[in-house]
Design brief:
Cytochrome Bc1 Complex, Chain D, domain 2, 5 helices, 2 domains
Length: 144
């Protein structure tokens, strides 16, 4: 190998590296675009699930909870709460209804949002929907 690093060598490394990373980018893009449709579960999106997402957003649930790893870390992950509650939307509704109006001193607690029965059921259906998304085993354990 030559002791001198020439312009020609630098140019070959630059172009070779550029071609390599462009091909890598294209391969990963193709892999992702072929994998995403297999995970799509848009048939499960009902009007009730859409209402649940709207209630979720209006009450800023993501301000305290994470959902599929996104959001705040103040309260538990809710991407698998349906499974944690024994695959029961009624258990989720009951939990949300039972939240205290006043917080417990020295302990984090969820406030009472005074949601209607329709909104509570919609939030539970939204959380059920999110638990059925293929997330490649995220969160890594049932506790989130």
């Amino acid at each position: 190998m030559s002791e001198v690093f020439t312009k020609s060598m630098a140019r070959n490394i630059y172009y070779g590296g550029s071609v390599f990373f462009i091909l890598l980018f294209l391969a990963l893009t193709f892999d992702t675009s072929s994998e995403v449709p297999k995970r799509d579960n848009h048939e499960a999106i009902t009007a009730q699930v859409a209402l649940g997402k709207k209630v979720w957003e209006e009450n800023d649930c993501i301000g305290c909870h994470t959902l599929l790893g996104e959001g705040a870390y103040f309260a538990p992950e809710l991407g698998n709460v349906y499974k944690r509650f024994g695959n029961s939307t009624e258990a989720i509704v009951g939990f949300i209804k039972s939240r205290p109006v006043e917080g417990v001193p020295g302990r984090r607690s969820m406030p009472q949002f005074n949601l209607s029965d329709e909104e509570l059921q919609a939030v539970a259906e939204f959380l059920k929907y999110t638990s059925e998304i293929n997330t490649s085993n995220w969160p890594p354990n049932i506790q989130g």
